[in-house]
EamA domain-containing protein
Amino acid sequence: MTALFALATSLLWGLADFGGGLLTRRMPALTVVVASQTVAVVVLGSVVLATGGLREAAPQLWFAVAAGAVGPVAMLSFYKALALGPMGVVSPLGSLGVAVPVGVGLALGERPGLLQFAGIAVAVAGVLLAGGPEFRGAAVQRQAVLLTLLAAFGFGAVMALISEASTTVTGLFLALFVQRVTNVAVGGTALLVSVRRGGAALPADGGSRAVWLALPALAFVGLADVAANGTYAIAAQRGPVTVAAVLASLYPVVTALAARGVLKERLRTVQAAGAGLALVGTVLLATG
């Protein structure tokens, strides 16, 4: 079950990243983050009320608050790093955040078997290659590397924190709701600061109407991200964190395949090889 939920996480995160990437071509990244997470807050709030999740309030909800505070910082750092480029280097480096939850699992005494260790190594290598790393070309700015590593650490920290935020299903709904409220608060504050400094909050083409027209896509991105956090939390609670974290970090492969299918982007040889390695690593982790 751990492998199933973790792979579902990769699928959901990969599709959410693909959708978010498309949206940020048409509107400011902060607006995409705040709008998509606001939709998630409304939906999750309704679920929490319907399931009586408010009764599940517990001290570990502070893990959800921490995850909610770290998430927007990680996303914005990643977007900034992508802007500095080159993307072929930045994108796969962002997946190195898997080291955080894997390290937590090892620190807590988890000891994967030989096949699982091999699967971890092969899957991580596959994820890095699936991003299409550029072995030649422009040098990478130090700022881009630092921002990418900050984002990777943030993504990994969110994975580690949200898995500790609840122990029951209704409690998980509440934890995800708290996380999203914090996302909106932190992201909204950053957006306000950006606007006061002269930044744009609305798309140059279409303004607020463009945001309303994109609401279904924004809702998909926000809800897919929420669902991914939920399935990862379940995967980490039901099996080894080291396995769950690596399988959940295969999302760059999903994003690359979505770009191939929807945008007709051709996979480079190194990306195809990375996708194949990721699949081999998945099999090793699932059977180990």
